[in-house]
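Repro:
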Amino acid sequence: MIIYTSFRDVCLVIYEINKNILGTVEELPFAIREFRNKIKLFEKGGNQKVYHQIIQQHLVDYKDYTDNIGFYLNDNGQAIGSTIYPEYLLRRLQYLKEPTEEDKPEIFNFAREVGSELQRIINIFEREIPSLLQPNVNESKFIEVQKSRVTYKDVNHSKLFNGDESSNVFKYRLILILQEAFAIQWIHEIYNINIINRDTIDEYFLFRFTINRFDSIVDSLINLQKFSTVQFDELNISSAGKLNKLLEDYMVNDFEAVAELRNTLHYDDVKNFYDYFVEIDSLDGLNALLTINNKIYQYIDDFLEISSISSTPLIELIIKSLFSNGL
């Protein structure tokens, strides 16, 4: 569930380094340049089209009569990931499967390409900055993270997207937001607490990881509030009015600071994200954003009620399969 969001961030870093430091952005594979654009969780004027493309791909892959949408649930039955999210990220990268490697998934070839680009950047930095090769005895480490139980739940698309067009697109967009919000929750509640010998790099990573996603989450919610008013009101009512209040307080108290940080993610000569980061006295502001994020995640999960959607009984799937094959 976390790997796809992190993978997208790696592409963003590779792109910015090549564009603003190395000056070799035109040499980057198209896939990396395209993938890093998925930091935004919606497309202006194109959300309906993207929703249909994603559902159609699920129908092609798994047939229309099966439980063709997959979800991952935690111990509390909360949705923490789905097959919709990676399809959103990867839908324009279909060409990645090479003809000679038809037995390997597309993401494998893309990951190999990203790994090669990362190694190239590391080699350049180590050559230009020899001190990077010196061992650091105080380098931070990690306690082995205890495995958490994840269950899988498949449902038919018609049970999940069972409203009109506007409502279905609204749900689809909430699912994207939900997975980003869970990524923030996981990185703080699982990854963060298991760091040993925490250093500045660890704090920088956590801050940047959170700001990237949180700005996109709120940006998408504000867009829904503006252009999907009926559906957003339903979501707000489901939260007993707490979501609207949460966003109002955020816009007054935190929006400008987060937006400013979000706009400094580029590695250029102007003051960038790291310059702001080293001036921060504490991570109290980050903890406040984490609290807001976790509430947003809870409101959306309660609204979608993924755990309450029933999967199709096996015997029914068998019968439908037989009929679909003309038997």
